[in-house]
Specification:
There is one protein chain. By secondary structure, the chain is α+β, with helices and mostly antiparallel strands. It has 2 helices and 4 strands; from the N terminus they run H-E-E-H-E-E. It has a 4-stranded antiparallel β-sheet.
Length: 71
């Protein structure tokens, strides 16, 4: 499964990003592109996002590496 497929599967399963104010938002279609661009701008090797997964309360982070790999 590619990172794009993984992120799309999360989206289909109702996983949401948690904003700084605690509200939830949809994972945008260009999420990986935006995350890797932000990582490049911040000169970091990866960036992590808090997520809400309605099917798995232990799944609370979505990490994107500078190369675009999502886990």
């Amino acid at each position: 499964m590619t990172s794009e497929e993984y992120v799309e599967e999360l989206h289909r399963n109702g996983v949401k990003l948690i904003k700084n104010d605690g509200s939830h938002s949809e994972i945008p279609s260009d999420f990986l592109k935006r995350a890797t661009e932000l990582c490049s701008q911040l000169t970091c090797s990866s960036i992590s996002y808090d997520i809400f997964d309605p099917q798995d309360s232990e799944h609370t982070k979505l990490r994107v590496l500078e190369c675009g790999y999502a886990e």
